[in-house]
Each structure stands twice: as C-alpha cells, then as structure tokens.
Design brief:
This protein has a 7-stranded parallel beta sheet, with helices on both faces. The model has no long low-confidence stretch (mean pLDDT 94). The protein has 256 residues and is an alpha/beta fold. Helix 1 packs across helix 7 and helix 4 (105-130) packs parallel to helix 5. Helix 2 links the parallel strand 2 (33-38) and strand 3. The protein has helices spanning 18-29, 41-53, 68-82, 105-130, 153-173, 198-201, 216-227; strands spanning 9-13, 33-38, 58-62, 87-90, 135-140, 178-185, 238-241.
C-alpha cells in the first residue's frame, strides 16, 4: 500500500530513543525528512548519525519540550531546514512511579510540564506552521489515560489531560485541515518501560490477549499509517495500540 508520505517533513519530540527513534526510522524509510529533538545532546548526535547512515535527511536539535520558547525555536529550525511541517508527533514524556503522598510539588510540576504542557506547546507550534497547508498531529497518551494505576496517579492524570487536549485541538484545528489524534501504547518493551523489571513483576502479559508484549515497531507502524492520507477520516480520537489489553475481563481466555 502506497501511503503517499514521500517528501513529507515529520517532527518527533523525544525522537532519539525507544519508540520515537523507531518511528523516525520508519518515516525515513517512507521517504520523509526527519526532525527530532531531546534534552541530551550526545544521545541526539548518536541518533542523528544512525539516521543519516540510513540515508535519511535529518535535523537534530537540543530542546526542552517543557519550555515553549525552545519548542518554538525548534519549530523555526525545522522550517528553516525543510520549509514545512507535515506531521508533528508529541512523543516526549516521563514516568514517575511514586504514591500520591510521596510526590512533591516540584516533581508534580515537572511531570505535568513534561507529559501535558509539552503537548499543548507542541500542538500550537505545529499548527502555526501547518496553517494553510494542513497536517497531522499525533500525541502520546497512555493506557493510564483512562485506567490509572496506584503508585503513578499524577502520570495518569497528565495523560488523561492529553486525551482531552487532543479532542479540543481536533475541533479547533479542523478548519485548517489539521487532524489531531492520541495514540495509546500498550506495554512496550523499551528501556524506559523495563526500569525495575516492572513488566515481569506485574505480569503485564497476562492482561493481553495477543501472546506477547509490544515492540517499538508496533507503535511506529501504526503512527505511519495514522499520519497518512489513508487515515484521513480518523480524527479527534484515541487509538489503542495495545494488543487488546483488557479488551475483556478475562484476556487469557482463548489460551486456557
């Protein structure tokens, strides 16, 4: 299937590692120009080297997505380099595994800024450059957006906010030809998710009808499709990429 993405410019925040990097690689394979940002220069440099070795045009710029000035500067740099922005993916985020009474005010601000405020800034930066041309904005949600977990409540609250922002932005940006979606990754085997071996300890695979955990490629494949014209009538909704996590009360039924 030709997704007609060749020549598009794709921006991915937090695009140097994990799902972000895998997504950048796949868009590059589709013939897209790439722009990624992050806070760690050495990691960005390594990601940029790998993408360039694959023959993909890429801009790597250090930017803190919690700072709207830096987000706007990054968007300006993308325009200077490629002349347009067609797809913007708000992928950057951070988890905090602490109980409600253990989260301090500064940690709360950092978590909300990284997971929620950054999406607000990114959507506005993207729309300002897409106006008159149209485009697609994809925001990283979480299964905790609508099924929070004890021990990481503020993270779930932030991700629930992302889903709400997505719907509001989709409504407001429609006349500009901009689609806005939230994607909901399931339990994905990334370095961040493997912290403290929580996937194994909590037996996450038992909640998934498909007999495996997800991979960054599972997310990347879905995002490439959602960014294409083939998904042109999908807008303002949450797209679960979870292997059917908790789609039924007894997800192991067919394996028993």
């Amino acid at each position: 299937m030709d997704l007609n993405l060749k020549g598009k410019t794709v921006v991915i925040t937090g695009g140097a590692t994990g799902m972000g990097f895998e997504t950048a690689s796949l868009f590059g394979a589709e013939g897209c120009s790439l722009a990624i940002c992050g806070r760690r220069q050495a990691v960005l440099d390594e990601a940029g080297r790998k993408l360039e070795e694959q023959g993909y045009p890429v801009l790597c710029q250090r930017a803190d997505v919690t700072d709207p000035v830096q987000v706007e500067a990054f968007a300006d740099a993308v325009m200077d380099r490629f002349g347009k922005i067609d797809v913007w993916i708000n992928n950057a985020g951070m988890p905090v595994h602490k109980g409600m009474m253990e989260i301090g005010a500064e940690e709360w601000r950092q978590l909300i800024d990284t997971n929620l405020s950054s999406v607000f800034y990114g959507c506005k930066a993207a729309a300002g450059r897409m106006k008159g041309r149209g485009g697609v904005i994809l925001n990283a949600g979480s299964f905790q957006s609508f099924f929070p977990a004890a021990g990481s409540g503020p993270y779930g609250a932030a991700k629930a906010g992302v889903c709400s922002l997505t719907r509001s932005f989709a409504g407001e940006f429609a006349s500009m030809g901009i689609r806005v979606l939230t994607y909901i990754p399931g339990v994905i085997e990334t370095p961040m998710a493997k912290v403290d071996n929580w996937m194994v300890e909590t037996k996450q695979q038992d909640n998934i009808p498909l007999p495996r955990l997800g991979t960054p490629s599972d997310i990347a494949n879905a995002l490439v499709f959602l960014a294409s014209d083939r998904a042109g009538y999908i807008n303002g909704v949450n797209i679960e990429i979870t292997g059917g996590k908790f789609c039924v009360q007894n997800p192991r039924y067919s394996w028993e």
